[in-house]
């Protein structure tokens, strides 16, 4: 009896891992194939039937992408933008969260509702006047235009008092959000040396001289920083983010 | 008035009033950086959008001629915009239920008690860190007519799917990218909610002889209902705001089959210079989102189970 019990437990464990692995493969397949393609030579990338794996770790694609498209410059732009937004949000959100938590002032609830309502107003409803404002201020193609409009955050303000790791969570979250932005930098940057990574990578696709393995090398190049950031900080990020969602 | 308490200080204020004024100033001072930014980049632009929607503008966005509600009546009679609204709702249907269902499955898997489960949790949730732009480019390959996932499907005898090329499948293909991107955040929120359920509930159910499936139906799912509701709102709003994959992959086509309202707004003002019309469309989008959110709060929230 005992032996069969042990045996069936082992089978159950095996089945659990099998399901977990299958689910994980489905989730990571897109990124996995991007990594593989980014390492392929031109001949390997265009062969048919298509190869699923590269013959070796060819880094020529990323070298070519870095040389012909200024991905390094885009990366620096994105990091500067993200750090600016992150510090701005940390300052404004910490100040506001402090006031809401520790100062008992008149009309506090009204101000609270004002902050809350900013989360209900989507960017679509404000983007045209904001775009015109940035043009009027001559902030197009500047870091001011890329960062200042995002420096206040209702979400971050409410996140802060909820959990102790929340400051770190907000920092990581706002960095990721900004680094991954697409529409706003698309609208307000035109000069090649002010482009951010997400726009820069999307532009590669329009150019004939880049093949799929070159483009994927660029994708991997700009994806790796955020993936590494996520792998290092996921526990803290998730603990902070879910503290708000599960309670609310 | 009580003489002891109302000893006038400076400027004729009582001590208590003075303190409350001081605290008010202090509070507002701490809020002011956020308040100023919200004013300049959220509230004033919202009002400006509404004003702008009543005008025909010059090609650089300056109001030229007041036309009242004509912008609204113009596109609400336009089959192309009505198609955008229909497409947007269809898109939400393609995105939201699958996202929540898949995330629930992944969260239940991530809740299993085995070694290295943390590794799997990271593998299930990493799309939190993936940008829509890189995802779109990766799926450009995945959706390739012959080499991407179509090749893998051909190995097991499934005929080619046209993905982005056909107006029948393009919207679904864009939805699939959005689902993949949204699943990460949904999964971690559901997992946290599952882990917040008191262990005793499962223990007493086990004593009563309830198997895993019964526990799921009678304990886990009912207790997750407020989380489902939260995700329903979050995912619907995210689906409404999907822009990047459309801009990178389809440009609203083929045959306008992926021309969501957001993309229509972008095209009207950025390419066609019709700022007034685009502002009116954006206000319609805003109102639809607001109404949906309120409906979800009023009607669904009521049926949600609370402990």
Short summary:
The complex is a heterodimer of chains A (248) and B (307). Chain A has 248 residues and is mostly helical. Chain A has helices at residues 2-38, 42-46, 60-68, 71-102, 108-118, 127-136, 143-147, 154-159, 166-179, 183-188, 197-204, 212-247.
This entry's quaternary arrangement is heterodimer
Helix content of chain B: 55-70%
Domain unit count of chain B = 2
What structural category characterises the helix and strand content of chain A?
mainly alpha
- If helices are DSSP runs of H or I spanning 4 or more residues, what is the number of helices of chain B? 13
Shape of chain A: flat
Helix- and strand-based class of chain B? Answer: mainly alpha
CATH architecture of the largest domain in chain B: Orthogonal Bundle
Number of domains of chain A: 1
> Taking all residues together, what is the mean pLDDT of chain B?
90
Strand-residue proportion of chain A: under 5%
Shape of chain B: flat
At the fourth level of CATH, the homologous superfamily of chain A is MetI-like
How many strand segments of chain B? 2
Distance N terminus to C terminus of chain B?
Answer: 49 Å
Strand content of chain B: under 5%
- Level-1 CATH class name of chain A: Mainly Alpha
What profile does the largest beta sheet of chain B have? 2 strands, antiparallel
CATH homologous superfamily of the largest domain in chain B - what is it? Answer: MetI-like
Topology of this structure?
The complex is a heterodimer of chains A (248) and B (307).
Chain A: H1 2-38, H2 42-46, H3 60-68, H4 71-102, H5 108-118, H6 127-136, H7 143-147, H8 154-159, H9 166-179, H10 183-188, H11 197-204, H12 212-247
Chain B: H1 15-52, E1 55-57, E2 63-66, H2 70-76, H3 79-110, H4 117-125, H5 132-142, H6 149-155, H7 170-195, H8 199-207, H9 212-223, H10 225-240, H11 244-250, H12 261-271, H13 275-303
Antiparallel strand pairs in B: 1-2
Helix pairs in contact in B: 3-7, 3-10, 5-11, 7-10, 7-11, 10-13, 12-13
